[in-house]
């Protein structure tokens, strides 16, 4: 079993702004991995671009830091190549719901056994505070000086509407809850999606840690398999519910695939794969 200390990258430390919510999520992920008894060699963390996407550099597991919006694609590829690994995808609200939204939808459809953790601070942080697909309408940002004219996406409603097997929300203001939600997400067999509301202390002066404390409440007595109720929770705006919003069983992609359900692809011997007929077909 791995310890918190073994997951540390000391003496190298994250270069996030002091007080950023990314620190809280990093600590929560480490705690969840330790609580689940996972070895660091069993875990791969992939990410796209953004402040949060530097995550794989700051935790001592396997990791891949890719291009904008493509953390999910890499995570799916890793899992399909080696289904024995626990795959966690990290991305911000800009990265996942903007540049990567097509891959988000694909992941909802495929149901490959990976976990998506979205660092949702309602803004693009790394590129200096532009409006993201989740920035509230009317909000003044560096790219919307007259107020954001667009309506925000509702990714939780989107995920529930597409029958994502595990949909949850937590915040960096609820540490114990956050660790619990990450553990539940990683333990789900299939695509699990956790939206984490976090502070960006530099570019979002509205949604602070205190704001999330004051405006979120924990879900109690909710039938997690009830889609209608889950959608009601997803559309709540006055105060934001946190917890497991939707949870159903679904067929996992690799299990139902005639090749991927056997040994991991990385165990296949390439000399056993005959592509001659395919090459003959496409060569002139
Ligand atoms: Fe965190 Fe915002 Fe600073 Fe990025 S800009 S490191 S999200 S506080």
Report on the structure:
It is globular and about 60 Å long. By secondary structure, the protein is α/β, with parallel strands linked by helices. β7, α9 and β8 form a beta-alpha-beta unit. Helix content is 31%, strand content 16%. It has a single domain, classed as Thiamin diphosphate (ThDP)-binding fold, Pyr/PP domains (Rossmann fold, 3-Layer(aba) Sandwich), CATH 3.40.50.970. Bound molecules: iron/sulfur cluster (SF4). Iron/sulfur cluster binds next to loops.
Strand-helix topology:
Blueprint: H1 4-7, H2 21-35, E1 43-47, E2 62-65, H3 71-81, E3 86-92, H4 93-99, H5 101-110, E4 115-120, H6 155-161, E5 166-171, H7 175-187, E6 192-197, H8 209-215, E7 216-218, H9 227-234, E8 240-247, H10 276-282
Parallel strand pairs: 1-2, 1-3, 3-4, 4-6, 5-6, 7-8
Antiparallel strand pairs: 5-8
Helix pairs in contact: 2-7, 4-5, 6-9
The structure holds iron/sulfur cluster.
Short description:
This protein has a single domain, classed as Thiamin diphosphate (ThDP)-binding fold, Pyr/PP domains (Rossmann fold, 3-Layer(aba) Sandwich). It is built from 10 helices and 8 strands.
CATH topology-level name: Rossmann fold
List the ions, cofactors and other small molecules found in this model. iron/sulfur cluster
Query: pLDDT below 50 for ≥5 consecutive residues: which ranges?
Result: none
Kindly state the mean pLDDT as a whole number? Answer: 96
The CATH superfamily name is: Thiamin diphosphate (ThDP)-binding fold, Pyr/PP domains
Write down the domain tally. Answer: 1
Instruction: State the helical fraction.
Output: 25-40%
What characterizes the major β-sheet? 8 strands, mixed
Number of helices: 10
Strand order of the largest sheet: 2-1-3-4-6-5-8-7
């Amino acid at each position: 079993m791995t310890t918190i200390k073994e997951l540390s990258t000391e003496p190298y430390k994250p270069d996030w702004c002091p007080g950023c919510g990314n620190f809280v999520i990093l600590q929560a992920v480490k705690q969840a991995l330790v609580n689940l008894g996972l070895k660091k060699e069993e875990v791969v963390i992939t990410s796209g671009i953004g402040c949060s996407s530097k995550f794989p550099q700051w935790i001592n597991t396997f990791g891949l830091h890719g291009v904008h919006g493509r953390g999910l694609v890499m995570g799916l590829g890793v899992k399909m190549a080696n289904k024995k690994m626990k795959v966690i995808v990290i991305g911000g609200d800009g990265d996942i719901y903007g540049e990567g939204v097509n891959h988000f939808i694909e992941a909802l459809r495929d149901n490959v056994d990976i976990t998506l953790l979205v660092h949702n601070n309602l803004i693009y942080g790394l590129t200096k505070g532009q409006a993201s697909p989740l920035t509230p309408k009317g909000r003044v940002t560096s790219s919307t000086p007259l107020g954001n004219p667009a309506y925000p996406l509702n990714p939780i409603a989107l995920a529930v509407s597409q029958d994502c097997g595990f949909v949850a929300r937590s915040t960096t203001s609820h540490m114990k809850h956050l660790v619990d939600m990450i553990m539940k997400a990683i333990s789900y067999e299939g695509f699990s999606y956790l939206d984490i509301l976090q502070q960006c202390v530099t570019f979002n002066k509205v949604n602070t840690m205190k704001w999330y404390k004051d405006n979120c409440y924990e879900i109690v007595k909710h039938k997690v398999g009830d889609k209608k109720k889950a959608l009601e929770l997803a559309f709540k705006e006055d105060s934001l519910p946190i917890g497991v919003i939707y949870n159903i069983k679904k067929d996992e992609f690799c299990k139902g695939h005639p090749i991927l359900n056997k040994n991991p692809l990385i165990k296949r011997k390439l000399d056993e794969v005959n592509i001659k007929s395919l090459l003959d077909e496409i060569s002139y």
